[in-house]
Amino acid sequence: MARPPADNSNQATRCPKRPIIKAEHLRETPVKIVVGTGDKAATYHLPPTPLKVISPYFRACLSDEFSEGATNVVHLRDANPAVFHHFVAWLLRIHDLGGNLDRTKPLIGLWILGDSIMCEDLQNRAMDVMRQLHLEYSGHDWHASAGCILFAELASIVAHTCEGSELSSYAMDKIAHAMTRGLKLRELMKSGAYWARIPETVKTEIFLRYQHYVDLGSKDSDPAQGEGCRYHVHDDTESRVTSENGQKAGTK
Ligand SMILES: [Zn+2]
User: Which top-rank group of organisms is this from (predicted)?
Assistant: First the structure.
């Protein structure tokens, strides 16, 4: 899959990034995007270039080969209008994801939206903001609560992401880590029906990760800690390696 063109105008910015919105984009014939279905559907009119730059999905469906490209209308039936609203504000640089958004659930929704429209930058920004938020929890008594919140969202994460996704990997790590810091298994299992919805493979994975943190002992580090590309989605290994070295490709 081809990656969006490199944003050389803003080389100091670390992964992830938003496209630069230029005045001419706002003069483009907008694309009509209908998000959701029925009474709750929301309609947006957005400039096509930033959408195409950031998302191979939009790039493909707004090409002449697809009916959306001809009609200039895209339906995102499975997307959540409230989540899409945050994506639009981020895309148009009205505010960053961290700005008006400080809860785990909408960040998970943004990550899943990014997955469905193939927007890695949105997924990675949502992940960075979420980890930062959870790091702030760990300074308080609520240390285990990020693990609790993620556990409550785990069934939804598993249902909406591919096996081995970076989001489910982070959620499993964070839950396992919280179990070493006081999050009791019996608390997790309180809701028997919910626990039953979690696939066996995921439960096993959480126990393995828990064991890993126990083995690490004092050397363990909170999955929310650290910067760089940990838990990022990158289909381009080379760019991940350069970002992990704190440099974007092309800055050397
Ligand atoms: Zn990255």
Answer: Eukaryota
Fold topology of 8-103: Potassium Channel Kv1.1; Chain A (3.30.710)
- Give ion ligand 1 contacts, CB < 5 A: 15, 229, 232, 243
- The pair of structure tokens assigned to 121 is 């930058």
Ligand 1 geometric centre to CA of 3 (Å): 13
Q: Where are the domains of the chain?
A: 8-103, 139-229
Query: 191 φ, ψ to 5°?
Result: -90, 95
Q: Provide DSSP, 39-58.
A: GG-EEEEE-HHHHHHH-HHH
Positions of the chain with pLDDT lower than 70, given as ranges? 1-14, 69, 99-102, 139-144, 236-252
pLDDT tens-digit readout, 43-79: 999 999 999 999 999 999 898 777 776 788 999 999 9
Rounded to the nearest angstrom, the distance between the alpha carbon of 104 and the centre of ligand 1 is 20
